[in-house]
Design a protein that fits this description.
Layout: H1 2-5, H2 8-12, H3 23-38, E1 43-48, E2 55-65, E3 71-78, H4 87-102, E4 107-113, H5 117-125, E5 129-140, E6 143-153, H6 154-159
Parallel strand pairs: 3-4
Antiparallel strand pairs: 1-2, 2-3, 4-6, 5-6
Length: 161
C-alpha cells in the first residue's frame, strides 16, 4: 500500500493520505484496518486488476457516526496507471450494495476534493447524489481546499433511484 500511495499525484487527490507515505504507515493502516474489521466497524476491500488479480487500490466503508443510525463514508484509492479504466466505478457499486444490504447502513457519504472531477464522476455513476461543497474544508500541501459531498440513502438505493 505504501508503494501504491507513494505517487504524489495520488496523494494530492485524496483527502486523507499524506505524502510521502512510508512502510510503517502502511503497516499501521493494515493493522488498524484488521482491528476495525474484527469489530465490524470498518470494511476495506482491495481493488484488483481483472486479469492478474494484482492489487491496484482499495475502497472501503469507514465509521463516520453512530449517534442514531449507522452512517458510513466511502473512501477509494487507485494506483494512477489504472485511472480512467473503469476499476473505481466497478468497485463502488458492490461496496454500496454491501453497505446497504449486508451492513444495513442508513446512509453512505463520500467526500472528494472538488478539483478531483474524476472521483465525483465515479460517485455519480455509482448512484450517489452530489449534495454540496464544504468550502476550504481541509488543508493539503499548505492550501485550503474545497470538498465535494456525495450521499446516498438506503431507501434511495433499494428503490433504484
Amino acid at each position: 500500500m505504501a508503494r501504491l500511495a507513494g505517487n504524489p499525484e495520488i496523494t494530492a487527490n485524496t483527502l486523507e493520505i499524506p505524502y510521502p507515505p512510508n512502510d510503517r504507515m502502511a503497516r499501521d493502516w493494515i493493522s488498524e484496518t484488521d482491528r476495525k474489521r474484527d469489530r465490524r466497524s470498518d470494511q476495506v476491500f482491495m481493488i484488483t486488476t481483472w486479469t492478474r488479480g494484482e492489487i491496484i487500490g482499495a475502497i472501503g466503508l469507514m465509521c463516520f457516526t453512530r449517534e442514531h443510525s449507522p452512517v458510513r463514508k466511502s473512501a477509494t484509492g487507485l494506483a494512477d496507471p489504472f485511472w480512467n479504466q473503469g476499476y473505481a466505478t466497478e468497485a463502488v457499486c458492490p461496496v454500496l450494495d454491501y453497505g446497504f444490504r449486508v451492513m444495513g447502513l442508513h446512509r453512505i457519504s463520500a467526500f472528494s476534493l472538488t478539483r478531483n472531477k474524476a472521483t465525483g464522476r465515479v460517485m455519480d455513476t455509482g448512484g450517489m447524489r452530489h449534495e454540496g461543497v464544504l468550502r476550504q474544508h481541509i488543508q493539503k500541501t499548505g492550501n485550503f481546499e474545497d470538498v465535494a459531498v456525495h450521499g446516498l440513502l438506503r431507501e434511495e438505493y433499494l428503490s433504484g433511484g
